[in-house]
Write a structure and sequence with these properties.
The protein is of the alpha/beta class and about 280 residues long. It has two domains: about 1-100 and about 260-279, Nucleotidyltransferase, domain 5 (2-Layer Sandwich), CATH 3.30.420; about 105-255, ATPase, nucleotide binding domain (Nucleotidyltransferase, domain 5), CATH 3.30.420.40. The protein has nine helices and ten strands. It has helices at about 35-45, 85-95, 105-115, 170-175, 175-185, 195-215, 225-230, 235-245, 265-279, and strands at about 1-5, 10-20, 20-30, 50-55, 95-100, 120-125, 130-135, 140, 220-225, 255. Helix 1 (about 35-45) runs parallel beside helix 2. The two termini are about 15 Å apart.
Length: about 280
């Protein structure tokens, strides 16, 4: 029996499968780390999973050979710095075999498995901004995972940014907290033609352009709460990225698109569980 756990900025998702039959799927609030682990274990109580796949927000040590595998690092999420999330979940759930990756790497892996792409990037824009990358079914985990959400945004963007580490990185410019700060209220109240969305597209276009220069991919999935609420952003981001690339790097039509898999990050956690079982 496989248990998949997805930890995000505000919620934790847990699911259980016996083969392809799903036995449980629940969403829990993400509180303090110890209480969150206990809540997951409580939901799984009565089942006997033998393997765990963990897809987590980062930064987190995902190197399979590292002695601190599954430990969170310096994170903006209060109270979670250095917490041994992977080992604590494995202990609480009573599983010996477990694998861990970032939530965006897991999502990229699930999307590529679904779409058949050799190389794919998954960009999520929500509480934070994360980028996952998969090539030939494998994600970058050693010596570390990508943190491309902290690349610089459009240098012309006048907003100073809210990232506690970098200020005006892409995350500091277009994440949910950044949009609240920029709009002075609830960004959901903004109209689709508000000029703020063009800045969001410009900042994300710089990120997509950088991805295409560094690790060219066949598709960029744009997921997370912000683009899900504003589906027009994908086309704007692609057009802006194409303008940045000019004639030097081809940005094909349809490069940027929405997720095709329901909860790809959680599906990716199940792929991690399969990987752990094979070790």
């Amino acid at each position: 029996m496989r248990v998949a756990v997805l930890t995000g900025g505000t919620h934790v998702h847990v699911a259980l499968r016996e083969g392809e039959r799903e036995l449980l799927r629940e969403t829990l609030p993400a509180g303090a780390p110890g209480a969150t682990v206990a809540a997951v274990a409580d939901r799984v109580a009565g089942h006997r999973p033998d393997v765990l796949g963990l897809a987590s927000f980062g930064p987190i040590d995902v190197d399979p050979a590292s002695p601190t595998r599954g430990h969170l690092r310096a994170t903006p999420k209060p109270g979670w710095n250095d917490f041994p999330l992977g080992p604590e979940l494995a202990r609480a759930l009573g599983v010996a075999a477990w694998a861990v990756d970032t939530d965006v790497n897991a999502a990229a892996r699930a999307e590529a498995a679904h779409g058949g792409e050799t190389a794919l990037a998954y960009v999520t824009v929500g509480t934070g901004v994360g980028v996952g990358w998969v090539h030939q079914g494998r994600t970058a985990r050693a010596p570390d995972h990508p943190e491309a959400g902290h690349l610089p945004g459009d240098p012309a963007d006048p907003f100073r940014g809210v990232c506690t580490f970098h200020g005006a990185c892409v995350e500091g410019l277009v994440s949910g907290p950044a949009l609240r700060a920029r709009s002075g209220g609830d960004p959901a109240a903004l109209s689709d033609d508000d000029p703020l969305w063009d800045w969001v597209a410009r900042d994300l276009a710089h990120l997509v352009h950088a991805v295409m220069l560094l690790v060219p991919v066949e598709r960029v999935i744009l997921g997370g709460g912000v683009p899900e609420a504003r589906p027009f952003l994908g086309g704007l981001v692609e057009a802006r990225a194409r303008a940045l690339a000019g004639a030097y790097r081809r940005i094909p039509e349809g490069l940027v698109g929405p997720p095709r898999v329901t909860r790809p990050d959680l599906e990716g956690a199940f792929l991690l569980a399969d990987e752990a079982r094979a070790w």
